[in-house]
Amino acid sequence: MRKYYTRPCNFYYGNYAKILIAKKKALSLAGNKNIAFDQIEIFQKKRGIAQSKIYPIDKIKNLSREIKATINTDIKAYISRDGSAYTSAVTLASQGTTGGHTILTANGVDLSGITSGTSMRWKIETLNQSAAKETRIQAVSLGWS
To answer: How far, in Å, CA of 91 to CA of 89, rounded?
Structure first.
């Protein structure tokens, strides 16, 4: 199996970054809405030779299945509150990449089926891992209103 690496390209800063993020024309860098990018470079290594190509973030959905991460199969997320049982796996969606990392989000998760309270917890499972396929979790954020 080939390995793929990514990095963000074409940065914007300040109010213009916020406008682009609001219009979904760019992604925030590490959650900082003052810094945005609208392109990613994808590197792949074939037989020891590195190749790369730059894609606008709105074209990520058009990438081949081989390049796209197998989200919701190889990585699953769950939410709990006040020590209750975890939800069924929440649906994760790719929001692009930043700093070589894929950003996954789960928005609008229905928590009505689990205990009420404010002591929120998350759980991440990585599945189907091997020497050729490795998932690393760099950061997790849990917010609710």
So the answer is: 6
Burial (CB count within 10 angstroms: exposed 0-12, middle 13-18, buried 19+), residue 34: middle
Contact between 111 and 122 (Cβ < 8 Å): no
* pTM assigned to the model: 0.48
Quick: pLDDT tens for 73-114.
677 888 888 777 777 678 777 787 776 677 888 877 777 777
126 phi and psi angles, rounded to 5 deg: -110, 135
Residue 9 CA to residue 73 CA, distance in Å, equals 28
Beta bridge partners of 80: 121
Which of 133, 99, 106 lies closest to 122, judged by CA?
A: 106
Strand, coil or helix: 90:
strand
Cα distances (Å, whole numbers) of residue 130 to 16, 27, 123, 134, 135: 42, 30, 21, 6, 9
